[in-house]
Amino acid sequence: MINRITVSINSRKYTVVADENEAYIRSLCEYVNEKVETVLREGSHVMGEKPLLLAALNICDEYFKMLEKDDSELQIENLISENRAMKESIEKAEDDAKEKDKKIAELQDEVDIAEKMLKESESKIKELENKIKQKETAIKKQRSEFAIREKEILDMLENKS
Fold first, then answer.
1. pLDDT number for residue 116
2. Looking at domain 1-44, which of 2.60.40, 2.40.50, 3.30.160, 1.20.120 is its CATH number?
């Protein structure tokens, strides 16, 4: 709903047309009047529209400074939020690294056990290979002795006949 409100700023009457309610518009006008009175108190012989213009500049100055402050606070809040997110990421990465280090240690233990078993197996294989060579040597010796005995038996059988 559009409101038509007549207000007085610096002793002049103005009609303001706005969607906002009358109390809000009047509070804005009171604020502008206070700024005009400040300009008039501080300025020497300021007349005409100049007090209104200077008051408007002062209000704009306040507004822009508030925007900068709000923007700075927003930037600070954003940085704090980013910082928190980074801390959480770092903590998660550290936890992941600890978990991976633990897994690596477990795997290293398994590798150490496997290497020990492999060495034991290799030692056992060498031992068995030596036994096989000994047995093969014994078999060759027995075959040689068998061949000698067989020849002796055959020679004896031939000599008997």
1. 97
2. 3.30.160
